């Protein structure tokens, strides 16, 4: 199902909004038809991802002649990237993370591929659903509220490592899989490259957020073992929670239809989420179809639900780091995610697999 209606601007973002975090070029100093070093570097990042995407496409049994079409995808997308190296203005350029993602998705869809990661998403969702009770029980056993919230935030980072848009992680996942509980223990030590977690936790007990909008990221451990236990804690805190998920499939990101199904499977016989009432938990179609997001184009549904929110959370490297890290909102905001590209780590001055927790409080 595709989002119906015209896309609109997200109502809580300030007017000087720019989606991409990394400056790919300077209009004042860079030559228009010559690629910058940053552009070339990111073209290579996307080129490195082609083999893993081709492999997933080859295995898509919903598409006839998938191996041949997968090869066409690899060749066609490689040709586009080569064109951009020669002339950054080609293919709607100059290129940035949003355009490079969009071109990749366009090629896949033109060749008939709608959701090449569906099998791995379904498998990971099933495994994560089985672990959900254990994860929330561990959290609920922590009596100190500040320590419980910190544990939940660390769970978001542990879940967020399941990202098949990263060539390195895709290769690691295909070999060994990923363990959520092991990932919780292996998060890089603090201080993180951006680390406002203590400030956020100190505000938790004093804030009464009425409505939080969370832009969610990946399927599997990310949404089920990371975001949903945190969202459940917000519900206990008295906050209405809107989970904004993609309209269409992209990489292993969860879609809003998949998220509705996941939550139905997690509810107990009373319709609760591990004992917590879900009447204040809403699922919204963000209108987005990429692993990154430009908040100048969201669904009218999400715009309406977000209009009076007082907390916005951008989760994941694509939505909260590569785009929107420096976005300013009219309300409190959190950008949270793990750094899974060396180019992002270098830009931020951090480490690969470093963590970002950026909290901005808007004073009334």
From TrEMBL:
Tell me which Pfam families the record gives. Answer: ARMT1-like_dom
Keywords, sorted A to Z: Hydrolase, Kinase, Manganese, Metal-binding, Nickel, Transferase
Q: Which residues form the Damage-control phosphatase ARMT1-like metal-binding domain?
A: 47-356
Q: Has keyword Manganese?
A: yes
Q: Name one GO cellular component term.
A: cytosol
Can you name one GO molecular function term for this protein?
Answer: metal ion binding
One annotated GO biological process: coenzyme A biosynthetic process
Q: Does the keyword Glycoprotein apply?
A: no
This protein's cofactor list reads: Ni(2+); Mn(2+)
State the name under which the record lists this protein. Answer: Kinase
Q: Which organism is it from?
A: Lithospermum erythrorhizon (Purple gromwell)
């Amino acid at each position: 199902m595709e989002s119906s209606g015209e896309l609109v601007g997200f109502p809580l973002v300030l007017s000087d909004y720019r989606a991409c975090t990394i400056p790919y070029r300077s209009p004042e100093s860079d030559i228009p038809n010559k690629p910058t070093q940053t552009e070339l570097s990111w073209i290579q990042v996307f080129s490195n991802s082609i083999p893993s995407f081709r492999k997933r496409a080859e295995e898509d049994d919903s598409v006839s002649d998938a191996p041949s079409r997968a090869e066409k995808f690899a060749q066609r997308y490689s040709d586009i990237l080569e064109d951009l190296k020669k002339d950054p203005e080609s293919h709607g350029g100059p290129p940035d993370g949003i355009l490079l993602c969009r071109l990749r998705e366009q090629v896949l869809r033109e060749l008939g591929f709608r959701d090449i990661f569906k099998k791995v998403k379904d498998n990971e969702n099933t495994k994560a659903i089985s672990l959900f009770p254990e994860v929330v029980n561990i959290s609920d056993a922590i009596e100190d509220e500040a320590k419980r919230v910190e544990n939940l935030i660390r769970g978001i980072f542990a879940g967020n490592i399941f990202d098949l848009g990263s060539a390195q992680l895709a290769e690691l996942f295909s070999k060994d899989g990923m363990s959520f509980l092991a990932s919780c223990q292996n998060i890089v030590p603090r201080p993180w490259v951006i680390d406002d977690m203590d400030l956020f936790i100190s505000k938790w007990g004093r804030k009464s957020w009425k409505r939080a909008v969370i832009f969610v990221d990946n399927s599997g451990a990310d949404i089920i073992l990371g975001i949903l236990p945190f969202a459940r804690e917000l519900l206990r805190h008295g906050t209405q929670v809107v989970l904004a998920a993609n309209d269409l499939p992209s990489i292993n990101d969860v879609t809003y239809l998949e998220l509705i199904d996941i939550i139905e499977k997690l509810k107990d016989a009373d319709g609760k989420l591990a004992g917590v009432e879900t009447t204040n938990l809403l699922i919204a179609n963000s209108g987005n179809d990429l692993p990154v997001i430009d908040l100048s184009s969201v669904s009218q549904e999400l715009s309406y639900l977000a209009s009076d929110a007082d907390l916005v959370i951008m989760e994941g490297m694509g939505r909260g780091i590569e785009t929107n890290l420096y976005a300013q909102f009219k309300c409190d905001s959190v950008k949270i995610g793990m750094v899974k590209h060396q180019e992002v780590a270098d830009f931020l001055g951090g480490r690969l697999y470093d963590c970002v927790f950026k909290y901005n409080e808007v004073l009334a």
